[in-house]
Amino acid sequence: MSTPSECNVPNGGPDSADDFDFVETPKEHIKIEVEAETRPDFEELKKSTSSECNVPNRGVDSADDFVENPTKLVKVEAEAETRPDFEELKKITAECDIPNGGPDSVDYFIDIEAPKKLVKVEAETRPDFEELKKIEKKRREILLRAELPFWRIIMFWSGTCLKEIATDSLVWATIIIYVGIRIFANSIDYVPESVQMLSKTNIGILGGFLSFFLVLFVNQTNGRFLEMYGFSKACSGRIQDVAGLAKTQLPSEVGEKLVRHFNAAHIAGYVGLNAIGMGSPYSKTFFFDHYNAESALLTPRELKALGHHDMDNSGLCMKELVTWCQMDVAQARKDGHIDSYQEKYMHDKILAFRAAMDGMYDYTDQPPHFFYIHFLVLLSALYLPLFAIDTAYAGGWGAEKSLGLDLLQGIIVFLQCIFVVGLRSLGTKMIDPYGDDLEDLSVINYVEGTLEICRTIMGAKQAAKGASGGTTTTGLL
Question: Distance (Å, rounded) from C-alpha 98 to C-alpha 32?
Answer without folding.
Answer: 59
